[in-house]
Every structure is written in C-alpha cells, then in structure tokens.
Amino acid sequence: MAKQIILFDDYRRDQLLPLTFTRPVSHLRVGILTIKEKWEKYLQQQCFDLTQDYLSKKFPMPQKSNNDCLIINGGVLPTSRLTNRIKLLNSGQALLKGNTLIAAILPHSSISIDKLSRLNLPNTFEFENEIVEITRPWDIFRLNGLAIEADWQLITAGRKSAPVSPSNKILNPEKIFIEEGATVECSVLNAQTGCIYIGANAEVMEGSLIRGPFALCSNSTLKLGTKIYGPTTIGPYCKVGGEVNNSVIIGYSNKAHDGFIGNSVIGEWCNLGADTNTSNLKNNYANVKLWNYQKEGFVDTGLQFCGLIMGDHSKCGINTMFNTGTVVGVSANIFGDGFPRNFIPSFAWGGAQGFTIYKTSKAFETASIVMARRGIELTDTDKEILCRIFNQTTKYRH
User: Fold this and answer.
1) Beta-bridge partner residues of 100
2) Whole-structure pTM value
3) Do residues 329 and 311 lie in contact, with contact meaning Cβ atoms separated by under 8 Å?
4) Phi/psi class of residue 192: alpha, beta or left (left: φ > 0; alpha: ψ in -120 to 50)?
5) From CA 14, how far away is CA 41, in angstroms rounded?
6) Do residues 222 and 205 make contact, with C-beta atoms less than 8 angstroms apart?
7) What is the 3-state secondary structure (H, E, C) of 348-389?
8) 176-232 pLDDT per residue, tens
9) 62 SS3 class
C-alpha cells in the first residue's frame, strides 16, 4: 500500500483528556502496542498523525502530495478483517460503522481536522462487523485484556520465545513469550488466565507474582515481590512494584514501591511515591463517576471498578491516597495527608488541604531532570505544548 497513511483524531479526543492533552489518540497504549504501532504492523507502513494544531509540530502530517491519502480513525483498533476491508477502498470512498468514520481515501488537500468534521462523502460503505474502539479513558483498561491477546498473537506469530529460566514457576508456558535480553528469575508466571509478554531488556526481579494477561514492555522493571493481576500493561522504561490490577501505564513512568493501583491509566513521565494507593471501588458499590473535560462535570462510567486516570508529567508524594475515580491532569504535583479531591487540574500543586499553581518554569525544571534520566531531552516543542496546556486549563485552577 503506497498511499500515505494518516491517523486522525475525531470527537473522542476531548473525551479522552487528560491523556490526549499531550498526544494524539493513536499514541495511547492499549494492549502491548500503541494504536499507531498496531496499524503500522498491520499495514506494514509508517503512519502519520492528524491532531490538534498545538501538537502537530511534534506529531506531524506527511509532506503535501498530489496523491490520495488513506486516513484512518486513530481511536479504532485494527483487526485482520478490518484491515483487509480498508485495503479495498478506492479514491473518494469511505468506510463507516454507524456514525463513526473508520477510514477514507481522500486527496491531501481535503485532510484537516475542520474539513473531516464536515466531510460529506456520497460513496460510503458500512463495515459489517463489530469494531473495537477507545472512546473514554476507562476503555483503555476495560479493553486491555482483549488488546493484549490480539497484540500477543500479532507480535509472536512465527517466532520462538527466549527460554524461561528454570528458577521460575511457569503455568501454561505456550502462552508466555519472552524477548531476547529480558531477565526473569525466581518468579511465578501464570498464563492460564491470559498470555504473558516480557519485552526486550525488561527485568522481572525475584519473588514477583504475575497472573496474565500481562505485558511488560521493553526496558521496564518489576521490582522485588511485585504482584500483578491482569489484564495489565506496563509500557517501556517503567519501574513498578507493589500491587497492580487491571491497569495500563503508558510508558516512562514509575510506581517503584509498595502500594496499590487498580483499574487505572497512568501517562508518561509520572511518578507515584511509596505507598501510594488508589481506591477502585466505592464503599456503597455504586457506579463510579469520572470527571469529563468535554462536559466539564462528572459522568457515570457504568463501571463498579474505576481507579485513577493520570496525565503526563504528574507526580504524587509518599502515602498519597486517591479516591475512587480520580482524574489528575498534566504536570500536577500532589502530596500531604488525607484524600485530595477527585478532579485535580493540570499544573496544580498541593493536596487535600488545597492547591496552588505549579509554575511552568518549575515544571520544566523537573521534567528536564526526569527525562534526562532516560536519555531524552525536554525540547522547546515539548515546552510549547505544556504552555498551551497550562493556558487551556487555567479556568480549572480558580
């Protein structure tokens, strides 16, 4: 497929905040891979992004071309059947599922966020099968088991796992795949409840208990005695300890000590202090409500279990306690005793006793140090994005 492929954001981008303040929808991780990585594997071609203007410098569109482009909804997960149907599209044709635009072939000049919202293609086709899509933050952990299984099949097809050390206790070994360079010793890996994937150069330290479905991505570490209940994904370059249940850490974040997180999504460059705990079930067992930026209020998730949604660059101190269904924005810093409120704006500094404003200059200093530890620079483009987020979220800090 020679056409340029562009993954576009639609209405769901606002519903997926704060996770999409700093990235296009397709850069969310669900399963082992990000949505973009999935499409690139299925289509065997690089994909580009059509996202918010302030993100477009970091996540660019392809150079202008006189040829048609294939656009694909960045919130829809690929399957073999869907990919094959998309490949049958011709110029000017679109594939829909109800009111959701899945894919279309359009001239480059017709592709922009504004134009796609007003797109009126007469030549449309309805996709006959069900689609898997991410529309709300809780979909990420809710669909994570399904996505881990699909990614596991995609990544491991025709390949052989590295050998598992005999120091481990293994259940259902045919559903365990360990990449070269990974280290797993003196741990229990139970794949009877779902597949287990250990990425390249990852380490599972002694005494860890893992119940699949589970993915530990490249260069990440499970600390001594970590307890994992699937479906859980730990993205690349993370350090995780304590107890984790049905959660996704997108990448480059640490929860290195004891404490519990469940039914949660943690962004990049976050740090959860020792003995941080999230409640994922209300005392009265009622459905959990979660802050929604689009409605500027709380919405019913329809879920009995829902923990913490935390945007990029946010941190919390030791012994932090998060209420059921807490949303933390980008670059917030939470500390102190007691339960902070269950919506914490971006660039908020404080805790249960109240918040002040976390100045961008101070936030940049911290982010630069944190990212340098992973050999990554906080660029001027990154700073511009964070400044835009700071300005967009001013009203929530008053």
Assistant:
1) 97
2) 0.96
3) yes
4) alpha
5) 27
6) yes
7) EEEECCEEEECCHHHHHHHHHHHHHCCCCCCCHHHHHHHHHH
8) 999 999 999 999 999 999 999 999 999 999 999 999 999 999 999 999 999 999 999
9) coil
- Tally of residues, the chain: 398
Torsion of CA 30, 312, 54, 76, to 10 degrees: 10
Kindly state the tokens that stand for 315. Answer: 């941190």
Amino acid at 25: V
Q: Is the pLDDT of residue 118 over 70?
A: no
SS3 label, residue 96? strand
Q: Are 371 and 387 in contact (CB under 8 A)?
A: no
- pLDDT tens for 338-357 read 999 999 999 999 999 999 99
Q: Compute φ and ψ for 397, nearest 5 degrees.
A: -95, 10
Listed in sequence order, the DSSP H helices in the chain are 12-15, 35-43, 80-86, 113-117, 137-142, 144-156, 360-372, 380-392
Q: Which long-range contacts (CB under 8 A, 24 or more apart) does 366-371 make?
A: 366/313, 366/315, 367/269, 367/313, 367/331, 370/269, 370/271, 370/313, 371/252, 371/269
Decide: residue 386, CB within 10 A, 0-12 exposed, 13-18 middle, 19+ buried: buried
Q: Which residue has the tokens 């829909």?
A: 96
For tokens 């656009």, what's the residue? 71
Q: Cβ neighbours of residue 301 under 8 Å, at least 6 residues apart?
A: 136, 138, 287, 288, 289, 290, 325
Mean pLDDT of the chain: 95
Whether omega before 231 lies within 30 degrees of 0, making that bond cis, reads yes
List Cβ neighbours of 209 (8 Å cut-off, separation of 6 or more): 187, 188, 190, 225, 226, 227, 228
Is the preceding peptide bond at 122 cis, omega within 30 degrees of 0? Answer: no
Give me 187's structure tokens.
Answer: 């741990």
Q: Is 388 left (phi over 0), alpha (psi -120 to 50) or beta?
A: alpha
d(CA 356, CA 349): 5
**Alpha carbon 351 to chain centroid, angstroms:** 25
User: Taking the CB of residue 352, how many other CB atoms lie within 10 A of it?
Assistant: 15
